[in-house]
């Protein structure tokens, strides 16, 4: 429990009766505003209304300051003015705006965030000096002034809207009846509002009448319901392997299809289902393919599947998957106007071709004998907007699914269907998920905002370190009789407000999120746990999600909905026994100085949170009969006027404790945006009829026939090894790869820093082709010598060209680069484009690993983002970040030399741990991928110690020895750190660090190194010599390095002779 100061309670008492909040938390209370509003609120005269300021609808508009001292108010990441008030910071004191917060760690020093929002913090006092415009500037107000004085200005502003605390009428000081306002009944408010709008100057926008609002609301609801009903038109094709081992699964589809259809009708009230079937065997079987076109008669589908015979198979493992997909592509997927199109592919063995299987017996190891390409067929399915669900039965199909997903970008959704008893459950869950995905797609194409994703934190905050905020609560009271919810009742009966003021402490980061809001842990002044919920806002330019405000009416509507649901829950519970009751948490609206308005409610009891329904008639299988009966009860007891839906919460001893419901009502102007009106009520009733009234369909199960296992134990899968030839890969027509390489090499020997301005479309084509090339190769590269290995480059383009002069340009030499190609230097775009061009042109000779700087959050700060934005645009930077997520993290040379950017991981047990890492993938805060990119050696420690960088580990010689013995390697090669001679050994020369950016950033006096691994596995180094600051002439200039034609020598050594190694430094001519 928190101990509060007496002064806090005095401030709270002063705020009673005073409503003061500004959107985005950008306002502050001043003594004059408090006194004036308090006097109005306590006025004893019935003819003088207690007015409250209505919060402005939008965030404040800042006037950029032109004085130099205020430049320290810029965000340290984006260097922009803090339009949204600062709510987060870090121990390093970095000034950050909310839109630049992308995770739980500060992007500058990787330290956990700490709150900086309490008013006593100096930063908010400084922010209060920033110049802003009046929130009502659009209506004609020309006031500008300090942000801290906004509330003081709005008290006297003629354009600011005020609300009568007694009757709820909203007026402006410029309105004729503001001074002598008489309180009106609810029935007179609409007329009064129209009269006020008529009396206002024509330059001010008139308020819409309730009829206009209801009409627009019905149009919005119709669009949303139409999206759901479009998505509920399903075309589902079952592609099933019908060879001898699949009899059990064929019978499962036949026997369980009725249950699947019944369950889908219960989940999707307006479902229109078309079913098709493609059964396939192998090339030597007759019939090879059997097809049923789409039909809406479930009996026809069941009879067709019943006639399928499990026979054949060709004597090998793989089957004719190519032919099945070709037949599925020929189906008429447009039938019934279906927007949701799904393939359910059930198989226990993969397609022909060694690319897709590791079976010891394959009659067609080169692929389909008719020349069909599996990836082309899959792309055709994808172009038809078909969602592909693969039900795997054995592990033999894993390679096929993995290869196709690497090529097509995780197109296939793999599900476990080994147990025939779970086929119906898996299929229905997958179909429901597919419909939900279609809804999201249609919503996006219709221009509706899709719920953004925010960074969550499961950590329980330390309340002693979080200062409380003083807030005013406004909560709707529950109605006393059910007749207040009938169609002829006055709407204001559900909106009677009660006010109070308390102190609340809030966690800095949310722990959960819904479609429109995020939830944070909170603590009230009495020590009771609570949850506060903010609305999400999105910065469209940078795709950054934060918290923001919405209209006060929307927030009050959430409190109103909770109060109505709670009353109906009490009414329902009066006839229910303990353990079968429904309870709802109450919700209040909180406002306070310098805070974004939010809703606050009690914390849910401990339990597994689940969502049981939504507000358009979808019910989850976990929904119990009690909850469905409650929803039907709310409709019946209010005579069809109201229905409580969107049930979610936890189960407890007394029943269910629920939160955030929605209320459907015949009056679409009430109960907020969750009220989808009568149409949604009809859909809910239809779903409840299927669930509660119809006789359930039983699921029939049969035991599958076991299949012969063709795998041979003890025979490992052959590792992937590139032949080091020079094949040309298919390239984009707009790429002009040779011209790009010539342009990038044309500046060799010119002045340092001379840019190469490539066409934007050409770079985009390069990124697309390079991404595909990277994903075609495995996550762990297994390579053969000879190879040349380079470390960090960091945008030093001329130095990169010098290294290619020294070591030989591709394809004359094979290269492995260890990452960190961008940031710091001024020509990161030239560096990454040349490297990607070589990778695309010579994919089996040129290899690139991922460094810690090949990450969006790092390049956002250290230069690459700014370079892309300055020379091209942000979209190009995002394309590069997507490509970085596809780079492999590690390589193994001749099974003995282990290469990565950072270092090994304590979680690394074998190389399969790397092979199984997913791609594309962002860099996580912990785990194997993080360690491979961030780990550092330290000769003075033992074991694994937390890294001073704030991420990953530092390891000692003993830890390195343990990992090398576990993996069976003789040498670890890494980069990641500046070393004076360009290379540096560690732990008795078991590890070597390579750094290839000489005179790093012009501030370090270091050499750059290139490591050569010869075909006889001997190693040597070639160096680009460093220069002193005096030789450079400018501390910010980079070293010129070795000129073209430089003579480099270095004695070859075997990895077994590392003890006697000495490298000869390259000297300039």
Detailed description of the structure:
It is a single chain. It contains 26 helices and 42 strands. Strands 10-9-8-11-12-13 form a six-stranded mixed beta sheet, sandwiched between helices. A six-stranded antiparallel barrel has the order 14-15-17-18-22-21. It has 1069 residues and is an alpha/beta fold.
Structural descriptors:
19% strand; disordered N terminus; six-stranded mixed sheet; single chain; 1069 residues; six-stranded antiparallel beta barrel; alpha/beta
| Count of alpha and pi helical runs | 26
Q: Structural class of the secondary elements? A: alpha/beta
Number of strands: 42
Q: Tell me, what's the shape?
A: globular
Mean pLDDT: 76
Oligomer: single chain
Give the N-terminus to C-terminus distance in angstroms: 75 Å
**Rg, Cα atoms, Å:** 34 Å
How are strands sequenced across the largest beta sheet?
A: 10-9-8-11-12-13
> Which spans have pLDDT < 50 for at least 5 consecutive residues?
1-49, 66-72, 115-122, 184-209, 539-546, 697-731, 1028-1069
Strand content: 15-25%
Can you summarize the main beta sheet?
6 strands, mixed
Helix content, binned percent: 25-40%
Brief synopsis:
The chain is of the alpha/beta class and 1069 residues long.
Helix-strand blueprint:
Layout: H1 6-15, H2 31-41, E1 51-53, E2 88-89, E3 114-115, H3 122-127, E4 131-133, E5 144-146, H4 150-156, E6 161-164, E7 170-172, H5 186-199, H6 210-231, E8 233-241, H7 247-267, E9 272-280, E10 289-295, H8 298-306, H9 321-330, E11 340-347, H10 374-383, E12 386-392, H11 398-408, E13 412-416, H12 423-445, E14 469-476, E15 497-506, E16 512-513, E17 517-524, E18 529-539, E19 544-548, H13 552-573, E20 581-584, E21 587-591, E22 598-602, E23 610-611, H14 625-637, E24 642-645, E25 648-652, E26 655-658, E27 662-665, H15 677-692, H16 737-745, H17 760-775, E28 780-783, E29 787-790, H18 797-807, E30 815-817, H19 828-841, E31 846-848, H20 856-859, H21 864-871, H22 874-884, E32 890-893, E33 897-900, H23 912-915, H24 928-934, E34 936-937, E35 944-946, E36 953-955, H25 957-967, E37 971-974, E38 983-986, E39 991-994, E40 1008-1013, E41 1018-1024, H26 1029-1032, E42 1053-1054
Parallel strand pairs: 8-9, 8-11, 11-12, 12-13, 20-26, 28-32, 29-30, 30-31, 33-37, 34-36, 37-39
Antiparallel strand pairs: 1-6, 2-3, 4-5, 6-7, 9-10, 14-15, 14-21, 15-17, 16-17, 17-18, 18-19, 18-22, 21-22, 23-25, 24-27, 25-26, 29-40, 32-33, 35-36, 38-39, 40-41, 41-42
Helix pairs in contact: 6-12, 7-8, 7-12, 7-15, 9-10, 14-15, 16-19, 17-19, 17-22
